[in-house]
Amino acid sequence: MLLQIHKSKIHRVKVTEANLNYVGSITIDEALMEAANLYEGERVQIVNNNNGQRLETYVIRGERNSGVICLNGAAARKAEVGDIVIIISYGLMTPEEALAYKPIAVFPDENNELN
Predict the structure, then answer these.
(1) Over the stretch 15-31, which tens digit does the pLDDT of each residue have?
(2) pTM (2 decimals)?
(3) Other C-beta atoms lying within 10 Å of the C-beta of residue 56
(4) Which residues contact 100 (CB under 8 A, 6 or more apart)?
(5) I need a surface site. Which of 1, 36, 90, 109 has the fewest CB within 10 A?
């Protein structure tokens, strides 16, 4: 049996853009993606701390060190620029892998930068 386990997250990052006229997804600064072990195309859950909305979408690589967090397409209706979100990824693991796995958590500053 495989369990769906919290793999990594970007905790409390600021939405910098919301682009309704895009095909869909969330664009994330490449440096943040790497720090959180996120892959382009990976399924993620977005939790909006400002309005309680939750949604699932996939990751698009954004410009490195730009601080970009852009909700695209229908997801743009779930957040406003300036909202604080948590981006969570999950992985499928055996029970043995899940017991040994330590999730990655990234805590950017108020400018979506890593220190």
Answers:
(1) 999 999 988 799 999 99
(2) 0.95
(3) 12
(4) none
(5) 1
